[in-house]
# Entry
Amino acid sequence: MPWKNQGGGPWGSGPKGPWGSGPQSAGPRPPDLEDLLRRGQDRLQQLLPGGHFSAMGVALVLIGAMAIWGLSGFFRVQSEELGVVLRFGKHVRTVQPGLNYHLPYPIETVLLPKALRVSTISIGMTLTEDPGRRGRTMRDVPEESLMLTGDENIVDVDFTVLWRIKPDGVGNYLFNIQNPEGTVKAVAESAMREMIGRSNIQPILTGARTTTEAGVQELMQKTLDGYGAGVQITQVQMQKVDPPAQVIDAFRDVQAARADFERLQNEAQTYANRVIPDARGRAAQILQVAEGYKEQAVAEAKGQSSRFQKVYDEYRKAPDVTRQRIYLETMERILGGAEKLVYDGGNSAQSIVPYLPLSELTPRRPPAPPAASQQGGNR
# Structure
């Protein structure tokens, strides 16, 4: 029997409690718990067959509860997720996107990591809220971006890493590392510092970005595989590679001077490529002319020697005749081109009129060739 139905109770009649009289003024009373329980029991009995808790009613209730418990094992995996089914906490299988089923809780549970999504991590820069622009702006993080090169220079490197979960390494991703994103970021920063420390600053600032990115990606993948992280690095992108802001103007001056040096060096090389072949050609021409003159001089000397030897042989045979012939040939060579007519006053010269224009009547004879030319002709 409820407390309110008892006639006064052990402390007397009336609405009194164990510590004295009840409230002095009437007011809203709280709902009676026993009354609520009784009403619930009455409604449940009305729903059961026969209006009371029979064996069949209990069986129907248990069947309904079992059906609801069994249907609770259906779950849906979204397009960028993979379902990792755990049986009493142990990874038993991985399911693909779509509608799937696992044994109801607490036998099996499911985890839904976004294993098919490519995530991005930025190192050396971060997005912050900018109230003035009513949006988000990129802010540099010097403690992450400043790195030391192999030639002891400081360089400011901002880069991003694109990564995803390996389809066959979802279990490793969930159970081997506690903070996947933080682990990937720490490994990326460490790998980039190692690659920068192996290189000089000049190649990093100019043409070695692709090589550096490939080296960082390879080193990160090797390190994460060693951790058993189940993470795949898809790409490393260097966004900004500059000297520190405090010395960037000096670096730009150095770059401009180096560019001028290379330009002047290229111009000098172009001039050398134009002048040297010309000089070599002229040198070859001079050598060929000298070689021809040498051959000509040697041939002429040999011809003169051969002619002298022949004349000498004829002279030995007939000295007077040879002497007379040499004299006549010499006089012919000397006087053949003269404009004066020389005669010896003999009988053959009596018919010559001294005052005739002999220079116009006498045909001009071409000069006799030198002895070397005659020798060449004889040969």
In short: The chain has eleven helices and 13 strands. The mean pLDDT is 76. The first helix runs from residue 33 to 47. The longest strand covers residues 154-165.
